[in-house]
């Protein structure tokens, strides 16, 4: 399974900053050591033209040059730096590359990404550009060169926070279905209506979560017929998360991942996944959730590889 990374560009953050930047490197090291079927590849940065499929040119320029409005930088929550701007581009590039690889191999991943709080004109909540949205628009544009029917894409967003930016970007777009399961009382406090939103109460555990996911996937399958799935495998519904407010166990999260992978596999749909959030009291716990996601995904990659054609 091909996995794309952008973490050679580490963001310089002030001491005590609450974003656990080191989780990407920890994850990459553990994947290299423990999941042998994974091919780690460096992502190319997304170009201005690719970003402009979703984002306003003025915002792209503002991020690139460090001239973006300070109030927007405060909403993003990172201080501006050239490394931040480069990394944000690379992370979008990693999701684009993962989508292309998924069309060939069935399943592929971005080791970062899932920056679903970014809107066309502004970022927020540790998200600069919306990687999934840019990748979708680009895949649709490439698909449009040889087909007149639009490429239909489903986003299955299981980060604990609502994918507000994504929902807004695709609000009037019938070619993209946005599904989000998230904490009702969690950030963002003003949610954007997506195609299917499932609000979960604080403290939701494995059983109730998996039940809600089952229903949501069933409804997605009834209402929409995608040709590509993008999965945001947030680690922040884990019970050890500082920000998540839900109570999923290791087993519950692995069952969640397998349910999504199964859903796509049974329909023969290529699936690209990104990490999205994870803010464990112990950073190792967040990384463990993510390693488990990759280990499960690698077993689906073998199925794709061995399937009769
Ligand atoms: Zn999150």
UniProtKB/TrEMBL annotation:
SUPFAM superfamilies: Arginase/deacetylase (SSF52768)
Molecular-function annotations in GO: histone deacetylase activity; hydrolase activity
Gene Ontology process terms (BP): epigenetic regulation of gene expression
Histone deacetylase domain boundaries: 18-282
Swiss-Prot/TrEMBL keywords: Hydrolase
Record InterPro entries: HDAC_classIV, HDACs, His_deacetylse_dom, His_deacetylse_dom_sf, Ureohydrolase_dom_sf
Family (UniProt): Belongs to the histone deacetylase family.
Entry-linked PANTHER family: HISTONE DEACETYLASE 12 (PTHR10625:SF19), HISTONE DEACETYLASE HDAC1-RELATED (PTHR10625)
Record-given protein name: Histone deacetylase
Lineage, highest ranks first: Bacteria, Pseudomonadati, Pseudomonadota, Betaproteobacteria, Burkholderiales
């Amino acid at each position: 399974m091909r996995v794309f990374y952008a973490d050679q560009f580490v963001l310089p953050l002030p001491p005590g900053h609450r974003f656990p930047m080191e989780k990407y490197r920890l994850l990459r090291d553990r994947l290299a050591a423990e999941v042998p079927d994974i091919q780690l590849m460096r992502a190319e940065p997304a170009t201005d033209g690719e970003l402009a499929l979703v984002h306003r040119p003025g915002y792209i320029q503002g991020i690139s040059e460090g001239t973006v409005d300070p109030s927007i930088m405060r909403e993003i929550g990172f201080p501006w730096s050239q490394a931040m701007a480069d990394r944000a581009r690379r992370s979008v590039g990693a999701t684009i590359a993962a989508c292309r690889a998924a069309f060939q191999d069935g399943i592929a991943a971005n080791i970062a990404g899932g920056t679903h709080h970014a809107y066309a004109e502004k970022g927020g909540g540790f998200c600069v550009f919306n990687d999934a949205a840019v990748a979708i628009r680009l895949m649709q544009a490439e698909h449009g060169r040889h087909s007149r029917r639009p490429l239909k894409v489903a986003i299955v967003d299981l980060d604990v926070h609502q994918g507000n930016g994504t929902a807004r970007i695709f609000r009037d777009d019938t070619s993209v279905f946005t599904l989000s399961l998230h904490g009702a009382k969690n950030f963002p406090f003003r949610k954007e209506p997506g195609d299917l939103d499932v609000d979960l109460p604080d403290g939701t555990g494995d059983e109730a979560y998996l039940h809600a996911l089952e229903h949501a996937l069933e409804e997605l399958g009834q209402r929409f017929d995608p040709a590509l799935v993008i999965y945001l495998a947030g680690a922040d519904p884990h019970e050890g998360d500082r920000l998540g407010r839900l109570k999923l166990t290791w087993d519950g999260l692995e069952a969640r991942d397998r349910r999504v992978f199964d859903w796509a596999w049974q329909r023969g749909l290529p699936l690209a996944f990104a990490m999205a959030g994870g803010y464990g009291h112990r950073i190792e716990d967040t990384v463990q959730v993510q390693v488990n996601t990759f280990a499960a995904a690698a077993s689906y990659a073998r199925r794709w590889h061995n399937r009769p054609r």
